[in-house]
Amino acid sequence: MPYLMKKGFLYDLEDAFEMLMDYDVIFIGEEHGDRMSHNAELLILKGLSKWDPKIILALEMFERDVQESLDAYLKGEISEVKFLKQSRPWPDYKRDYRPLIEWAKKKKIPVVAANIPRRAAAAVSTANKISSAVVGQDKIYLPKTVYLKSKEYYERFVSSMDVMPHGTPMKSINTEGLYKAQVLKDAVMAASLEPFLDRQILFCCGHFHSDYHLGIPYQLRKKHPALKIAVIAMATTVDSLSMKDRSRVADFIWVEE
């Protein structure tokens, strides 16, 4: 049973899982390197997979061109050492994402390596253009349409760039190019889900890719307006916001006692 609090309804995990079963795609917007985020991702994956053993896990943290290696590891066809050598895992993979992969392997949950290869995003940011010529060998991952015209997303992206420290390498790159690369990532991650939209999907990504139902949810809904999409945000990323703004960021906010 939910508990009515001054800041909204508080649900226990089982009630939350039951509610989440009504959604087609569930985004967890993590704060990279944050323990609460990674604890939440694993708990939610474990909980939802008990309710729906056919669930799909999708991850920003692996890129489209390593899908074959990821599949081979999940099936037990290659060793973990070989998998990690081939898949370019994020620096804190062992601590932050290995538990998700190992649970998926144990429960035979398919995992989507969702992101565009970094080299393609870098090429787009430098060229300030999304095209087959710019991304070269990675053109096979380009969706037919990339929706660039979200004014709110653009403004939020520019604001996020403005507050970055001046020594950050991204500060030296044209903002328009960086924005196109950001949207390309969103569009490719949305497109990576196309073969699995008849099953429930849990998507773990950086929170900017899902906050306010922008980013990946925006790209996905442009093509599939009937999809029921839920966004989960971490309390640490919304603490500074008013209650009205928090309710716009996400459908659910994860809190830990």
Walkthrough of the structure:
There is one protein chain. The two termini are 17 Å apart. 46% of the residues lie in helices and 16% in strands. Helix 2 (35-51) packs parallel to helix 6 (98-107), helix 3 (67-74) runs antiparallel to helix 4 (80-87) and helix 7 packs antiparallel against helix 10 (175-191). It is of the alpha/beta class. The protein has a single domain (14-254), classed as Rossmann fold (3-Layer(aba) Sandwich). It has a 6-stranded parallel beta sheet, sandwiched between helices. A two-stranded antiparallel sheet has the order 1-2.
Helix content: 40-55%
- Could you give the count of β-strands? 8
Average of pLDDT: 91
Number of helices: 13
- Per the CATH scheme, the topology name is Rossmann fold
CATH architecture descriptor text: 3-Layer(aba) Sandwich
Layout of helices and strands:
Layout: E1 3-5, E2 8-10, H1 13-20, E3 25-30, H2 35-51, E4 56-63, H3 67-74, H4 80-87, H5 93-96, H6 98-107, E5 111-115, H7 118-127, H8 132-135, H9 151-162, H10 175-191, E6 201-206, H11 216-223, E7 229-234, H12 235-238, H13 243-249, E8 252-254
Helix pairs in contact: 1-2, 2-6, 3-4, 7-10, 10-11
